From TrEMBL, chain A:
This is Carbohydrate ABC transporter permease. The lineage of its organism: Archaea, Methanobacteriati, Methanobacteriota, Stenosarchaea group, Halobacteria. Belongs to the binding-protein-dependent transport system permease family. Residues 92-283 form the ABC transmembrane type-1 domain. Keywords: Cell membrane, Membrane, Transmembrane, Transmembrane helix, Transport. Its main location: membrane.
UniProtKB/TrEMBL annotation, chain B:
Keywords: Cell membrane, Membrane, Transmembrane, Transmembrane helix, Transport. The keyword Cell membrane applies. It holds the Pfam family BPD_transp_1. This is Carbohydrate ABC transporter permease.
Length: 298, 309
């Protein structure tokens, strides 16, 4: 009891000494600095702990997961070996290939469309823009019944075309909006000068406007790539051949109630996260720019 | 995002001038060029959205099978889904959307305010905090599944286990499942709200606050009368987009619970999927999708009117 109160006394006197040395204003700013940092770190933990947990579990053997351990005791790489044996590499390659194909297809059609919306007034422009916004509101799930019926009729299930076309379509609205914003910000004088120098309209677009809006094309491309990498429901319904699954669906096939190999599943999740985090880390400037320009899906 | 700064109308006048010159130099009468430019996008949207949507409507309002077009049956399928618990699905969806969107916005705004002051390492903080935005939805689901699951879950095993007298919580079981999937959605959506709020906060001119300080406004008054009003418009946009995109999320919930336990997390997208592929009933799934389209149309019109896109 005595030591306890002694401790309290000493604490109190330390606090008093600090108080005596600081003005009231400095005292409030000290408390607010502490409070702000506490909140910042709490926020950071909320965001990062699920990622850390995936990493932790991926290095722990399944039969040791029941132990309450914060740091992995040993680096059990067998989970990763098992994940690669299951086809993790194939799934990631599929995802990256789909994302690349979707990005290329998307830019081929969305760059001209955004240019038209930025530079021309034409009959039906408003309707077209409204339709685009409408499709952006759609999550893929709403058209899934109709799309499945159509793909069945045309024999396009389990084909790359039957997957890549809808996948491209659901990414169009966003890139058209982003690109239109970039084209709007480029003065029309430059194009006029190019036209006066004898460029055709298409040449002016290809040789002057697109190079000038390279950051915009980049941003639209990154967003499309991330969406293309991420999709889950379209490949889930359209592909029946496991060799064609993207990573998200590949991981999903591991889920099986009590028999789920959680360690290996988390190893596969980590493998799936790595490419997207590399892109995110290297392209952050474009991503933040695109996000704050509005209209990006969350 | 509209430009709040007052430039005496100069920018607007210049824009009008430019728009005029656009018409004289680039546009020719009866010009087909813009239509050629938009044709690719128009084609893909027609094939991927409008034709399937048309087929969905046909399935919803007629007695069709995969083989042949059936008779028009009016609202029969809709009556059937509402007799079979569709209203509960809509209520669950509303709870899920409201919970996730309001929490994501609160955290996003709070986080943006925390990040707004300059501090050591802010750049890296922001970099890490925004990471969930880039994460695939399904992967967000897997990550939170392993945070929550009973036997191995991080929260039960690592956080709660050391506490004396602890009882493991069945996060994905009865009573808690819907809240748990909402947490996963908030994790994914809050960074999005945060970055939008953050950009808006950065755009508020410092002299607003300086003027308020001279007038004797305290921290709270500055927040109440400058920051909050400045964030109002952007909040409306965030509410609309997050509402739509949260309502129609499939991946997170499907991988975490599959709609269970006992339908407690059966939100609209999961319900459409299970009806279509689990119960193999395209007519009823289509009726549900049409209901979703109806909701989407209303929100799109609101968005069109509100956002100056």
């Amino acid at each position: 009891m005595a030591t306890q109160s002694n401790l309290n006394d000493r604490d109190a006197s330390t606090l008093d000494r600090v108080r005596a040395r600081l003005t009231p204003d400095e005292m409030t700013s000290l408390t607010s600095v502490v409070a702000l940092w506490t909140l910042r770190i709490a926020f950071l933990l909320f965001i990062t702990v699920p990622l850390y947990n995936a990493f932790r579990m991926s290095l722990t053997p399944l039969n040791e997961l029941a132990n309450p351990v914060l740091f992995p005791r040993h680096f059990h790489v067998e989970n990763y070996v098992a994940a690669f044996d299951y086809g993790a590499l194939q799934f990631v390659i599929n995802s990256l290939a789909y994302a690349t194909a979707v990005t290329i297809l998307n830019l081929i059609v969305s760059v001209p469309a955004a240019y038209a919306l930025s530079r021309y007034d034409f009959l039906g422009k408003n309707l077209f823009m409204f339709t685009l916004l409408f499709t952006q509101m759609f999550a893929a799930i709403v058209i899934v019944p109709g799309l499945f019926i159509l793909a069945n009729e045309l024999g396009l299930r389990n084909t790359y075309v039957g997957f890549l076309l809808p996948m491209t379509a659901i990414t169009l609205a966003l890139s058209v909006w982003l690109l239109k914003g970039f084209f709007d910000s480029i003065g029309i004088e430059i194009e006029e000068a190019a036209r006066i120098d004898g460029c055709s309209r298409l040449q002016a677009l290809r040789q002057v406007i697109i190079p000038m809006s390279a950051p915009g094309v980049m941003t639209a491309g990154i967003f499309t790539f991330i969406t293309g990498y991420s999709n889950f429901v379209l490949p889930l319904i359209l592909f029946s051949d496991q060799g064609r699954y993207p990573i998200a669906v590949g991981i999903y096939t591991l889920l099986g109630g009590l028999n789920t190999p959680y360690s290996m599943m988390m190893a596969m999740t980590v493998i799936g996260i790595v490419p997207i985090m590399v892109i995110y880390a290297t392209m952050q400037r474009y991503i933040v720019e695109g996000l704050t320009s509005g209209g990006v899906k969350a | 995002m509209p430009d709040q700064s007052d430039d005496g109308g100069y920018l607007r006048a210049r824009e009008r001038l430019l728009a005029g010159s656009r018409i004289t130099t680039l546009r020719e009468r009866y010009d087909l060029f813009p239509y050629v430019l938009i044709s690719g996008v128009a084609f893909l949207i027609a094939v991927v959205y409008f034709y399937p949507l048309y087929r969905t409507f046909v399935f919803a309002f007629t007695d069709s099978t995969f083989q042949e077009r059936g008779e028009f049956v009016g609202l029969q399928h809709f009556a059937e889904i509402f007799n079979n618990g569709f209203l509960e699905v809509l209520v669950t969806t509303a709870y899920w959307t409201f919970g996730a969107v309001s929490l994501a916005m609160l955290l996003g705004m709070g986080g943006a305010l925390l990040m707004n002051r300059d501090f050591w390492g802010r750049k890296y903080f922001m970099g890490m905090i925004l990471a969930p935005w880039a994460m695939p939805l399904a992967i967000a689901g897997f990550l939170w599944l392993t945070m929550f699951i009973g036997e191995y879950g991080f929260i039960n095993k690592v956080i709660l286990d050391p506490i004396p007298g602890y009882e493991p919580i069945s996060f994905l079981g009865h009573d808690h499942a819907l809240k748990s999937v909402i947490v996963a959605r908030v994790w994914k959506a809050a960074p999005f709200a945060l970055i939008i709020y953050y950009a808006r906060l950065k755009a508020i001119p410092d002299h607003y606050y300086d003027a308020a300080k001279i007038d004797g406004a305290g921290k709270w008054a500055q927040f109440r009368y400058i920051t909050l009003p400045e964030l109002r418009q952007v909040s409306v946009i965030i509410v609309i987009v997050l509402t739509v995109w949260t309502t129609l999320i499939f991946d997170i919930v499907y991988v975490m619970t599959g709609g269970g336990p006992a339908g407690q997390t059966r939100i609209l997208p999961v319900d459409i999927y299970v009806t279509m592929f689990g119960e193999a009933s395209p007519a009823l799934a289509s009726a549900k999708a049409v209901t979703a389209v109806f909701f989407l149309s209303i929100v799109t019109v609101i968005y069109w009117k509100v956002g100056d896109l």
